[in-house]
Amino acid sequence: MAHFTKDQYLGKELYAAKVNMDNEKILMDAGLNEDEIELLIDLSHTRHKLHSASSKSDELRDLYIKVGHQYSADETLVDKANKIAEKYNLPTMPAPEIPEIDLDDDYGMIADFFGVSKEEVEKDFEENTGEYYQDILLEWEKAKNKTSHDIRVFFYHINKKYGTDFPDDVPKDL
Fold first, then answer.
1. Lowest pLDDT segment from 42-46, 142-146, 166-170
2. Which pTM does this prediction carry?
């Protein structure tokens, strides 16, 4: 993990703020309103948090609820961003699909999911490094990476259409 000095950190923060200001101006000139621009910037920041969240953390689950968890009762960021995409004739994002299994599930649910005995899962979880434990983490990691990629593709299309500089890191031959 990289450690930044205070000046390096402030430099990164100032650069990010400048990019956001530049993006805001470009999008405002293109006809997007302030609420739409704010939502896109929020989605960009949330994607960054999602990408760097640990698969073991509650933060990851909270981010999925905000971005587009399938059980979210409210309109999610993906829902709102897709409305903007449709309004401005941009490709939409698929709703994130998260794993049906979680580290916080009881042993019986995990056993049912993997088709094994509850005792086998209990033994596996006592080590916190067992096969089923690792498989759940892997499922969450794959879902997290796919969602992050889908959001990056969304921003790739915004950058391409408007000349903005949202982080997308998507191959330019998309």
1. 166-170
2. 0.80
